[in-house]
Amino acid sequence: MLGRRLVSLLRNSPVSQVSSASKPVDEGKAKSLGHKAVSTILICLTGGVALSAIDDIAIYHGCSSKAMDKISNNKAMIDVIGEPIVKGSWYNASLAVAHRRKSVSCSFPVSGPQGDGLLRLKAVRSRGDSWLSFLRPREFDILVMDAVLTVPSNEETQRTIKINLLDDVDFRECQACTRSPASKTQQ
Fold this sequence. Notes:
The chain is of the alpha+beta class. The protein has 4 helices and 6 strands, in the order H-H-H-E-E-E-E-E-E-H. Strand 3 and strand 4 (115-125) form a beta hairpin. The chain is elongated and about 100 Å long.
């Protein structure tokens, strides 16, 4: 038995053992580096998607809260669906952001004791961008807001009513637009 081991050791020269041993170690390091790179990339992508979702939820919450503040005192809404007006669930809402998250289009369900409906709004961000803007709540100015409400009537059919909720906007507060240099040269 000892003789067989000696013969097998002599057959495998030290050079061939070193070269054969180094190949699996190098391949193992390359495979583990590849696995680490792929897992790091996947973790970064998942984190980016999660941060984007959290940012969208914060935008939705800010815009919908501001809209609910405006409609809670709106006489037309109270007359149609009653009081209190309650915001529906967030998973029935829709949110679209554009222009580097400076423009928002949002719709969400609202309900009251006499009916329910869908509140739709378009808003723009009122503050500028900075590195710390992600940490602060976003301020949005609502430009367009309307509600499409369904109210049961006496004949067991439903009436659909559309209400423009920004009729009471004072346009004198709006500042005059400045002309761009291109439009000044054309005149």
